[in-house]
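Private note to self, pasted from the team thread so I don't lose it. Backbone tokens:
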């Protein structure tokens, strides 16, 4: 085992020098006017929504059906995913979250469907014992769903309480810290 004090083990140095990734060249890029996102048509009914502006390089997907669309993950939360999706489709959109890390749920608070899905999970909570952990969590108590739902509703209503503010590459964000979780959102514009 080696150790280095000058190397960041989480964010690789100069990660951005590999951009743009050559793997995207085989897809048609869709210009949208949303500079945070790069959108690629990966099949005639599927868009990859790529966020190259941060080291995790988040990819969300928009799958278009005949009557509905599915947004798979809402991204990092640094730009207007809802506006982008509304530009790409007129279909009603259902949000599907693969797991609850910040780079997958950053715009959940902006979607009414997210709050509706949490309401359903709260209603069904008597039928399960705990939540399925994602990545590094070993156990997630099901009661956290009710608390995340309440916090999301409060933030959406402008009543989220205290937050820390930061400007991240020109985008003002708010981080609301709660016991057991945090919600990071793009700051509302006046």
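Design output:
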């Amino acid at each position: 085992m080696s150790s280095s004090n000058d190397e960041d083990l989480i964010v690789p140095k100069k990660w951005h020098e590999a951009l743009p990734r050559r793997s995207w060249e085989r897809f048609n890029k869709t210009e949208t006017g949303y500079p945070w996102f790069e959108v690629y048509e990966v099949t005639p009914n599927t868009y990859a929504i790529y966020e190259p502006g941060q080291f995790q390089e988040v990819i969300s997907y928009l799958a278009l059906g005949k009557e509905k669309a599915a947004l798979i993950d809402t991204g990092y939360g640094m730009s207007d995913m809802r506006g982008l999706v509304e530009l790409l489709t007129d279909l009603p959109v259902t949000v599907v979250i693969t797991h609850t890390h910040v780079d997958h749920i950053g715009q959940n608070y902006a979607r009414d469907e997210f709050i509706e899905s949490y309401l359903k999970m709260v209603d069904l909570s008597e039928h399960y014992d705990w939540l399925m952990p994602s990545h590094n969590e070993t156990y997630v108590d099901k009661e956290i769903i009710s608390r995340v739902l309440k916090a999301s509703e409060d933030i959406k209503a402008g009543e989220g309480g205290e937050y820390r503010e930061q400007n991240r590459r020109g985008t003002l964000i708010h981080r609301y810290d709660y016991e057991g979780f945090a919600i990071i959102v793009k700051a509302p514009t006046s």
